[in-house]
Design a protein that fits this description.
single chain; 428 residues; alpha/beta; Rossmann fold; seven-stranded mixed sheet; five-stranded mixed sheet; 18% strand; globular
Amino acid sequence: MAGTTNAFEMAQRQFDHVAELLKLDPQVCEMLRWPMREFHFRIPVRMDDGTIRVFQGYRVQHNDARGPNKGGLRFHPAETADTVRALATWMTWKCAVADIPLGGGKGGVIVDPATLSVGEKERLVRGFVQVVWRNIGPRQDVPAPDVGTTPQMMGWMMDEYSRLAGEYTPGVITGKPVGGGGSLGRTEATGFGVIYTVREAMKHLGLDSTQCTAAIQGFGNVAQYAAIGFNELLGGKVVCVSYWDREDRASYTVSKEDGIDPRFLMSITDQYGSINKAKAREAGYVLEDGGAWITKEADVLIPAALEGQVNAETVQKIHPRVKILAEGANGPTTPEADEVLKARNIFVIPDFLCNAGGVTVSYFEGVQNDMNFYWTKQEVLERLDTKMSVAFDSVLQMSLKENVYTRDAAYMVAIDRVVKAMQLRGWI
């Protein structure tokens, strides 16, 4: 997160602005500005050397009017309660704008997973479940992988919950390994979902995708498949990606004049997203400062890292050629930066629409778990494409109808759906 940006304050400011546009009742606003439930807890873990280390954990459930809470579990050394609150809030809007019957949740543990052995990670995730298992479940709150967590960890969590509940319960966790209750297409889902919305934005703006270039921040799962999708689904060219180098404790932008090959870069990337610098240079890649991605001459910018990366300072560096900002990350753009983007008429695909592919396929995974019947990858991705395209169109039509910024339009669609669910249930 950049500077002093507080993600939850940002989420509340975004909500307050749209609540005013919608003329929401102040009492309803108060219900939606804050999570319905929060769990703060400590997780003791026996380390490999026999010592016991205690980790701080969180699980936040923002609003379940439309269905069980849904959201990832992060392992990150800079995790905070406010970050988790913000992400849970955005998950509510994300599920609503994608029109899937789920609410918003999020979890976090303050830890650098790179410092843990495989056994320590397993004991930590099982410890997390042991603390919260009575407050999660297929009809309550369904965690999933996020920054610093993996499908294997989700498999361990599902196993631990099933052991405690006394029955096999695959639907308690999504993002599980294929063969262990996971869904085909989940790995690609968020990144490809970003690209499906970029494609729809290009159609609206009259752009030829085969003639367009993109600059991407990040090289985790979302960025990797967004890069692959931009190349292979749209026929465009990706000029750069960025990544955090764990050895140097610094970020780098990796670029190539004739376009990067994301599959090659993935082959020289470790499990935590650090690219092998020597091999990249050997292959003709240029390594620049981590912030260089936002300055690139490109048609599309895709921030796919952490919150607050497009802020009052960095937004000034965006090249005049940029026409689309597609938010692959959660909360990458601050309200101050939004004002500049509006003034420059850059088409913004807001985060909780743009990156809703992951939670959509997580929903598909839960459906498959319930049926005990599993779809092909093609079926999953076709259903995802349809969902993302319909969601994009609903936001675009709201934006055009009300003559409002796309972020405001997405909030208007999402908040309206949540409020209607609260009314139908008699909460308001």
